[in-house]
Amino acid sequence: MKYKVGIVSLGCSKNQVDAEMLLARLDSAKYEIVEDVAFADAAIVNTCAFIEPAKQESIGEIIELGKLKAEGKIKCLIVTGCLAERYQNDVMEQLPEVDACVGLGASDRIAEIIHDALEGKKIADYPPKENLPLEGRRIQSTPRYYAYLKIAEGCDNHCTYCAIPMIRGKYRSRKLENLVDEAKWLADGGVKELIIIAQDTSYYGTDLYGKPMLPELLRQLCKIEKLRWIRVLYCYPERITDELIDTIASEDKIVKYLDLPIQHCNGDVLRRMNRKGDRSSLTELIGKLRSRIPGLTLRSTLIAGFPGETEEQFAELAQFVKDIRFQRLGCFSYSQEENTPAAKLPEQLDDDIKEKRAEIIMEQQQLIMEDYADGLIGSEVEVLTEGFDKYAECYFGRTKGDCPEVDGFIFFTASGIKPLPGSFVTVKITDRLGIDPVGEMV
To answer: Of 2.60.120.280, 3.90.215.10, 2.40.50.140, 3.40.980.20, which CATH number belongs to 377-441?
Structure first.
């Protein structure tokens, strides 16, 4: 009998790549892959455990699938990913509907684990997290025209608020030639936009080659003829080198979009986060980026309500956001994560204060993004078509300034030729809907 397996992957795009590698191993083991886990014999939840809301989402998904198991619709339930790695045996103790809970290092045994779970065995397996394979076949789960390229695993930064190093282990770069080969394979399969990811992409190669190699990797990827857009995420500000800036500026295939997770601008808060820099150094860096990379779209993330953040320090952050005017920004209230250094800091703020501060930042950012959308009216932009919205009765897609999953869309009408998902079109912007530009294909 050929068993059916489905997977629900939660959290970040790095976790999604792990799920794609799991799917490939299951396919090689002759399991039938189904998109809807409700029709699977074995359901896998590839969990996230970065912050409390992510943990609750993972637990909620497990509980819902547990109900399907109780109804006899699925035969076994497997939990893997960050929640499994971080909490290990606690998962099966608290959620008895789980048949197997396995850490990151067990991913190469996933086919065997599912076989044993379908036989009625209870499995808890937590090999060293460093056993997580960095190389291997993937079954792409994103739309055919874009994909993520995970260039490294783990993190050495040890920000005091972050559990990633304890979950994922030390930073481990992949070999440059392997990344280029994988990118060629993706491009041959129809990928037009390649999105470079790691916990810290700017650190890439330092552990393997003794120096940062992201600029060289990008130059090699730009030689792949079938790729049209290359997007870089998660570059830490203190590791933005002149070489990286020049590479982004000079290579036509690299979209002028940079994700720069700064978390805060106040020097004292950043030091408590074990981060570098302050408002002055960040302002100088951003000024340099914008002057040397014309048309740059900057995305960043912030944490509001970090332990000990005073009203004055928060006011400095709010003013910084107003002054810098990031085109894309997310602000999150601080999540007190157990076993992280920040969780033990004094002056933990009340949840309502943290949430209110995050709301203030995002309300400011809404106005900034509305202004940016207004500034596009009358211009023509290149758009990667994503699909057709039957409710709005128009097409939608992304510009070079819009990353999948985290940024917005451009909505547009088209007469005559109907653009297919994955096609590039030119759109004239005529209006906006909230922060999303609206236009017509030309």
So the answer is: 2.40.50.140
